[in-house]
Amino acid sequence: MKVLMILVTAAVILAAAAAFEIYREVHSFTVTRYNVTSPRLKGLRRETKVLFLSDLHNRIYGKHNERLLQAVRKEKPDLILIGGDMLVGKPDEPFDVALGFVSRLPAVCPVYYANGNHEGRMKDEPEKYGDAYTDYRKELERCGVTFLENEIEHLELNGQKLALCGLELPVHTYKKFHRSSIDKRDVADLLSHFHTSNDIMAEFPDKAPDQYSILLAHNPAYMDAYLEWGADLVLSGHLHGGLVRIPGLGGIVTPQGFFFPKYSGEMTRAGEQTVIVSRGLGSHTLNIRLFNTPELISISLISAEENSCNDL
């Protein structure tokens, strides 16, 4: 009987500790910093800071998200990239939290936004959402946000030519317990409809050696296709870190119901290509995170020459 009481007491203590940790993590965030270099980053005149935000899902950090905004400002970014799901795509969910936060970012630096499945759902189902997505996008564009809906934007930043690619997969590729067949041809086909001033083909990463390509692709389940397509840097989210993370194994489960995904919340290098998957800034429906603190990702792009000098 005494042993049973000890076991019950220990179980209660562990459950209480886990509940406290889940609550703490759901209501906090951290800044995760990565250094990225590549032979294609030859034009950079200086280290360039890129912030990547994903999966806010209307989460609020301080009044009007002031804590999160201050963290963004503190990083002094040159560029902000948004990987989708900043709102919650449900008919009864307003988008004012996401709108209020994202609309203030262009005052910091240029902002580019690629949709996730929640924005995609709102756009594809006007019978449920009415003009909600159109209104959301128009208001953010009025504030200076550039949307990339299967589009590619060419720009030069600190001497480096960049190609920012926003991939928007069909909503059906996010279905529960289902993994669609997506390959590099599908990626190329989706991105072939973009409009660009110099009319480079969708397979341009192999044809423009002086450009560094960044692909915003919300769902990391199809990472092999993104890498085969030829992106230099792939930024994804969607998985919320796998809900619970186990050291050495990563996230446990994906929103589509698959266990132990290959990419769930980390930086991985594949030869000269780099993959960064965000654990996201929020959650919805299942508000559970354990050993999986939400994150704002800060990426330092470093020229190949500068990196080689630092290695001497």
TrEMBL record:
Residues 49-241 form the Calcineurin-like phosphoesterase domain. One of its GO terms (biological process) is lipid A biosynthetic process. Coiled coil: none annotated. GO terms for cellular component: membrane. One of its GO terms (molecular function) is metal ion binding. InterPro entries: Calcineurin-like_PHP, Metallo-depent_PP-like, Metallophosphoesterase_sf. Keywords: Hydrolase, Metal-binding. It comes from the Bacteria. This is Metallophosphoesterase. It comes from Candidatus Mediterraneibacter faecavium.
